[in-house]
Amino acid sequence: DEIPTVVGIFSAFGLVFSVSLFAWICCQRKSSKSNKTPPYKFVHVLKGVDIYPENLNSKKKFGADDKSEAKNKSVMPKNSLHLDLEKRDLNGNFPKTTTKMQGSPDLENSSPKHFAERKKDSVSPDSFKSITSLSSEDKQDKLGTLFFSLEYNFEKKAFVVNIKEARGLPAMDEQSMTSDPYIKMTILPEKKHKVKTRVLRKTLDPAFDETFTFYGIPYSQIQDLTLHFMVLSFDRFSRDDIIGEVLIPLAGIELSEGRLLMDREIIKRNVRKSSGRGELLVSLCYQSTTNTLTVVVLKARHLPKSDVSGLSDPYVKVNLYHAKKRISKKKTHVKKCTPNAVFNELFVFDIPCEGLDDISIEFLVLDSDRGSRNEVIGRLTLGSSADGTGGEHWKEICEYPRRQIAKWHMLCDG
C-alpha cells in the first residue's frame, strides 16, 4: 500500500513541476518577443512625391528609443526633405548621414533679404514685381505672395519643386479672421502630376517647406512645361475656398546652375462665365407599372476648361430627390481630357411614391481632380418646379409614360 502512495505523490510533484516549467518558458518567449525590434519600418511614400520626413519625426518609430530619435534629429537637417530610396541598405534602412544637394542653399535660415539677393543674380529684375514698391492701394487688392524654389537633378533626371511659404494671404473665415491654407500644384499641359501640401490651420503666413520630386522628366522638356499653383483654404463644412492662383511658364528659366529661388504674387483666379457651361444630353423614361424612373446620361458637349490647361476630366453625378430630400445617387465614369464626353450610362431609380409630383432629379457635371475636391462644372435640374427646358422635359415624361424621351439642356452655374 505504501509503494503506490509514494508513486502517486512523486507523479503529482512531477506534473506540477512540468506545468510550472512550461509556463515559465512561455512567459520568457513572450517577453523576448515583445522586446524584439520588428524587422521593418513604416515609410510613407506618395506617387510622384518625395517622402515627408517631418511627418515621420512627429510620430513614434518602430523599435526606436528616445536616445536614437534624438540622435537622428540632430544629424538630419530640418530642411532635408529628400530621402534617396536608392541609398537604402539590404534591410531597407536609410543611412544616418545625409548629404546636401549640390548648389542648394539653406532655405530654413534664408530671410526675405536672401530671396531678393538670389533673384538679382539669377533672374532679371523686370520679370518680378517688388513687394516693397507696392502702394497702399495695391496692397489692398493683393492676395499675398508665394515663395518657392526650382531645381533639376541631372543624375536622376528629376525635377524638384520646393514650396517654401506664402505671406499676406487674405482671411477667408470672417469669424476668426484667418484661413486654413494649403497649395495644390499641377504640371501643365498634360496634368499627369498633381500634388498638394498639407493644410496649415489658422494662419495667413503659412510656412509649408515641402519638397516634391518628379522623376523621369528630361531636362529638354522643362522648357515646355508650366507650373500651376492653386492656393486654397480648407473648409470642413463646405467646398474649399479658392484664394488665388500662380502660373509659372518654365520657358526661359535656366536650372543648370543649381537651385533657383523665386516668388510670385498670387492673383485672382480667372472664373468662367456662366453663359459657357456647356450642354448635357439626357434621356428619361417613367414606368408607371413598376414605379421606376430610367435615366440615361448620353453626352456632354462644349464643356468649359476647368483650369489653364484647357481640358477637363468630366463625369456626371445624378441625385434623386423626394420632397427636397435626396434619396438616391449615382455617378458615371470619368472621361479623360475632353470637352465633349460620351457617357451612354443607364441608371434605374425606384420611386417611393405614386407619380412624379414630388420627385425631382439633379445632374451635376464635375471635373475629376485627384489633388483636391472635384469642381462643379455645371448643374441641371429636372422636375415639376424646374424652369426652361428642364420643366418642359419633365412634363413630357409625366404625360407620356413608358416612352424614352431625350433632350439637350444648357447647364447652369454650379
UniProtKB/TrEMBL annotation:
The keyword ATP-binding does not apply. InterPro entries: C2_dom, C2_domain_sf, Synaptotagmin. Residues 62-131 are annotated as: Disordered. SUPFAM superfamilies: C2 domain (Calcium/lipid-binding domain, CaLB). Its main location: membrane. Gene3D superfamilies: C2 domain. Residues 62-72, 81-90, 114-123 have a biased composition (Basic and acidic residues). It comes from the Eukaryota. GO terms for molecular function: calcium ion binding; calcium-dependent phospholipid binding; clathrin binding; phosphatidylserine binding; SNARE binding. Keywords: Calcium, Cytoplasmic vesicle, Membrane, Metal-binding, Phosphoprotein, Repeat, Transmembrane, Transmembrane helix. Residues 94-112 have a biased composition (Polar residues). It is found in: Cytoplasmic vesicle membrane; Endomembrane system. One of its GO terms (cellular component) is exocytic vesicle. Residues 142-263, 276-409 form the C2 domain. The chain crosses the membrane at residues 6-27. It is a single-pass membrane protein. It holds the Pfam family C2. GO terms for biological process: calcium ion-regulated exocytosis of neurotransmitter; negative regulation of secretion by cell; vesicle fusion. PANTHER family: SYNAPTOTAGMIN, SYNAPTOTAGMIN-4. Belongs to the synaptotagmin family. This is SYT4 protein. It comes from Cephalopterus ornatus (Amazonian umbrellabird).
